[in-house]
Structure formats: structure tokens, C-alpha cells
Design goal:
By secondary structure, the protein is an alpha+beta fold. 35% of the residues lie in helices and 18% in strands. Bound molecules: flavin-adenine dinucleotide.
Length: 479
């Protein structure tokens, strides 16, 4: 793919972009460098970002189509973008690209009889939840970023979150999709029925495709009756191994609505950032919720307590008070900000079979020691989905080198334990090489074939999810 060099913004008007701006008037096309700058990075900040030639802030599907037809005509790469909360560099700009922001397409309609939400891609996850709640309905997927991330971004990454352990991930709630392909064609996939097996399941192909196959401009999301009352249990463990053992045992007999873990470094990061009264000396903490109906809730919580004691916990606290429970969940949710506040963060989200948690937690601690780095771990433990956050002092080049070596070690660790390099954040730009090592040459070849069929010029989010450039034929080629 050959692209003309990006024009220097402000000083050197770009005739191609000016032509686009005249087709999309009214401030849809942003060219001034200060505003464009805000669209270069996402939340994985330790990655070099390119300089976009412009940003399109689309308000309609037609505007998305116009922008993509223009990009195809002029061979301009396009980076689709929701709220830019990606923790894998998936929304990081590339040089000379058009950033296609969906943040202004925020419409939401609820149909309570059909139990669906029709959402535009820029609607925030929390806005869908709130709109559904008006009708006593619930949109369960709840990434830690649910207050700030968009439905389009959630779909493009197949976002997970805290309640997946019982309620599944974003893909489980996507009934219909409207997607614009790189050449501007509009696909309508699925619809408003609870079941639909007509044709290949292209709808799910786009879920988790990280903006590399098409741009989501609308979605029909399945809603469920609102969540019932919730009870919360917090258990303190002397070490990670006993906490991991408890997770495995709980999962064998109970389906909690939440099963989260924080290790000692994460607990202390949260306490340093905003004190919540967590036990700083605990080796690990589990936060478990049950939303089972009626008496079953108390029975589930009692069973969890028993299993935690059997695994060696030192203290258990449980509450039926929603606000008190929320306080602990908020402490867990604040861990992302708390860890980010400690330095430059390389976020990871490996996922392993649940019974391997104790071993993998021990290995992560060993990697931290080997590289002399702090690696706090929080985890959607019930899913085996771990978030080791590698932190180093900003500007310390030597520590940065060690941090990226630790990052690679963690990438190698997950497949070695039968797991995956990414459970929910996506491959983005940070895990492209690790993907190749995990899935192998044949899977990569088929993935490239799909990409080529839908985006033959390779314009959509180049460099994300799949290695760009020549198609690799052996793993050794995937540099
Ligand atoms: C504090 C914090 C906590 C988080 N917790 C979780 C968590 O628990 N679980 C989890 O899964 N993630 C989590 N994340 C990561 C992130 O929020 C999710 O990946 C989220 O789904 C990204 O949504 P976004 O709107 O910010 O998308 P962006 O970051 O803008 O984009 C993400 C990817 O989606 C593509 N994309 C965006 N919109 C579209 C569209 N309309 N069409 C096609 N492609 C599109 C982009 O090109 C990019 O590849 C967390 C992030 C933060 C900062």
C-alpha cells in the first residue's frame, strides 16, 4: 500500500482533506492540529502514535460511508475510534491516517417488549444501562470502563468485565449489527430476533474485529430483566495460591455474579490512591457477589464462605447492604486508575484456564522479581482473566526496557499454561507478535484471507490485530 505523505497540519493545507471537508461540511472534518492531537493516543500510552491527517467526527452512517469511500479512493488508512479507552493500542493513530471518530453517534432506543436496545456506536455503555433501567431492564456487559467507553468500542473489542463470570461478554448480547465496509458498502447483519441462523454468522465475525474489518455504525443489543438484589462477600487470603484455589473451588459448584481478585500490590495501590480500608497486609482479596433470587442468595454466599475457609482464608465479611457492597466493587474498579497513578503502565489481560490461576499468579510474581518491577494484579478471577499491570517510573529508560521484557514474558506465559494473550482488551498494537506465536501460521493465514476479502487495500486500522505487510507463511516470518 502506498500513501502520500501526510500534509503538515495548519501550515500546509491538505487538498484531499479539504475536498472531504467540503463534502462533509459543518465541522465534521477536524483539521486543526491541537484538536487532532487529542485523537492520536489511546489509554495504552507507552506506544508511539502516528500523526493523523484529519479526524472525521461522524454524526450519521451516511457520513461514515462518505469518509470510507474517500479513504478508499485515495488509499488513506482509517483508524476507527470510540472513546479511546483501549488498553492495547487498538485506537492509536498511524501516520497519515484518517481517525474516524464515532463519539457523536450516541442515539439509544429501548424496545421493552422486544427486550432490545438499538444503539449507535458512540453511546456510552453506561447510557445504555441507564436507558434500559428506565424499563426495569438491564444491559449486563460491564467493562471496568463502562462509564467512559462506547458500545462501538465494546463491540469492536468484544469487551468483558466484572459480571461476565455469570452473564457472558459483549458478543452474547449483540443481536444485530450495522457495519460499513472499507469501500463504503453498508451491511445489516442479524436483527431483533433472539435466534437467527440465516447464513454465515458474519455478525459475530465483526464482534472483536478491532476496527480491522468494518466500522460499526449501529447495534441491536439484547436486554434482560433487571438484576435482582445483590449480596457481597469479601474474603482475605494470606497468599495468592490459597485465593486462586478458592476461585477454582467456587467455580465448580456456584455461579457467582462476580468473582474478582486483587493481589497485595493492587490492594496497596488502591489504598495509596484513595483509602478504602482494605487490609494492606492481605496476600490477596476476593470480592464475590451473588444475585440469586430469594433464599438462594444467602445460601450461595454461605457456600462461598465455606469454600474460602477451606482454601485457607483468614477473614470473611459479607453484606446484603447494596451500598456497602458497592464500596468494595468500587475499590476494585478504582484499581486501574490507582495503578496508572504509580507510573507508566503496560496493561495486560491474559486469560488462562481457571484451575491454572494459582500457578500463573505465582509465575507473575516471579516475573516481577526477575525484572525488579512492581506488577500489581487484579483479575476477573472467575473467568481466569488476569490484569497484571507492569508499572515503571516515567522517563526511566532502563526500567522501561525491563518493563517491556516483563511484558514479553507474560505474553509467553499465558499460552504456556493453555491460555491466551488477551481475554478482553484485544490484540491491538501491543500483542500482534504474541498473537502470531499463540495461534500459529495457519490461523494467521486464514485471518489474513478474511481481512483481504473485506478490506482488500488493508486500509482499516493497519497494524492492529494482524501483522501488516507480507502475509506470514511461517511463525519465524512474523517479525
Ligand atoms: C479504567 C479502564 C478499565 C477497563 N476495564 C475493562 C474491562 O473490564 N474489560 C474490558 O474488556 N476492557 C476494559 N477496558 C478497555 C477498554 O475500555 C475497552 O476495550 C473498550 O471496549 C474500548 O471502548 P472505546 O469506546 O474506548 O474504544 P476505543 O478505545 O476507541 O477503540 C477500541 C478498538 O475498537 C475499535 N473501534 C472503536 N469503535 C469502533 C466502531 N464503531 N467500529 C469499529 N471499530 C471500532 C478501534 O479501532 C480500536 O481497535 C478498560 C479500560 C480502562 C481505561
Amino acid at each position: 500500500m502506498t500513501n502520500a505523505a501526510p500534509a503538515r497540519l495548519d501550515t500546509d493545507p491538505d487538498p484531499l482533506v479539504e475536498a472531504l471537508a467540503s463534502t462533509l461540511p459543518g465541522g465534521v472534518v477536524v483539521m486543526d492540529s491541537e484538536r487532532v492531537e487529542k485523537y492520536r493516543h489511546d489509554r495504552f500510552e507507552d506506544l508511539p502514535a502516528g500523526h493523523p491527517r484529519a479526524v472525521v467526527r461522524a454524526q450519521t452512517t451516511e457520513q461514515v460511508q462518505v469518509a470510507l469511500r474517500w479513504a478508499t479512493e485515495h488509499r488513506i488508512p482509517v483508524v476507527p475510534r470510540g472513546a479511546g479507552t483501549s488498553l492495547s493500542g487498538g485506537a492509536t493513530a498511524v501516520d497519515g491516517c484518517l481517525v474516524l471518530s464515532l463519539e457523536r453517534m450516541t442515539g439509544i432506543q429501548i424496545d421493552p417488549d422486544r427486550r432490545v436496545a438499538r444503539a449507535e456506536p458512540g453511546a456510552l455503555n453506561i447510557s445504555v444501562k441507564e436507558a434500559a433501567a428506565v424499563h426495569e431492564l438491564w444491559y449486563p456487559p460491564d467493562p471496568g470502563s463502562f462509564r467512559i467507553s462506547t458500545i462501538g468500542g465494546n463491540i469492536a473489542t468484544n469487551a468483558g468485565g466484572l459480571c461476565c463470570v455469570k452473564y457472558g461478554v459483549t458478543a452474547d448480547y449483540v443481536l444485530g449489527l450495522e457495519v460499513v465496509l472499507a469501500d463504503g458498502r453498508l451491511l445489516r447483519l442479524g436483527g431483533e430476533t433472539m435466534k437467527d441462523v440465516a447464513g454465515l454468522n458474519l455478525r459475530q465475525l465483526f464482534v472483536g474485529s478491532e476496527g480491522t474489518l468494518g466500522v460499526v455504525t449501529g447495534a441491536v443489543l439484547r436486554l434482560v430483566p433487571r438484576q435482582g438484589d445483590v449480596s457481597t462477600l469479601v474474603a482475605t487470603f494470606p497468599d495468592l495460591v490459597s485465593a486462586g484455589t478458592a476461585v477454582t473451588r467456587i467455580g465448580r459448584t456456584i455461579r457467582p455474579a462476580m468473582l474478582e481478585l486483587m493481589d497485595q500490590v493492587a490492594i496497596n495501590a488502591v489504598e495509596d490512591f484513595s483509602p478504602r480500608g482494605l487490609d494492606r497486609d492481605a496476600g490477596a482479596l476476593l470480592i464475590v457477589q451473588s444475585d440469586a433470587p430469594g433464599r438462594a442468595r444467602a445460601e450461595e454466599i454461605a457456600a462461598v464462605e465455606r469454600l474460602c475457609h477451606q482454601a485457607g482464608c483468614t477473614e470473611v465479611l459479607s453484606t446484603d447492604d447494596a451500598d456497602e457492597g458497592l464500596m468494595f466493587v468500587d475499590a476494585r474498579r478504582s484499581s486501574g486508575d490507582a495503578v496508572e497513578a504509580r507510573g507508566t503502565l503496560l496493561a495486560e489481560d491474559i486469560c488462562v484456564p481457571v484451575d491454572r490461576l494459582p500457578d500463573v499468579l505465582a509465575e507473575i510474581a516471579a516475573i516481577g522479581e526477575r525484572h525488579d518491577l512492581e506488577i500489581p494484579v487484579v483479575a476477573h478471577a472467575g473467568d481466569g482473566n488476569l490484569h497484571p499491570g507492569i508499572v515503571y517510573p516515567p522517563g526511566d529508560a532502563a526500567a522501561r526496557g525491563r518493563a517491556w521484557r516483563a511484558f514479553d514474558d507474560l505474553m509467553a506465559l499465558a499460552p504456556a499454561y493453555g491460555g491466551t494473550v488477551t481475554g478482553e482488551h484485544g490484540v491491538g498494537r501491543t500483542k500482534v507478535r504474541s498473537l502470531a506465536a499463540q495461534v500459529g501460521a495457519d490461523v494467521l493465514d486464514v485471518s489474513h484471507a478474511v481481512k483481504t476479502a473485506l478490506d482488500p487495500l488493508g486500509l482499516l486500522n493497519p497494524g492492529a490485530l494482524l501483522p501488516s505487510g507480507d502475509r506470514p507463511t511461517t511463525l519465524g516470518d512474523t517479525t
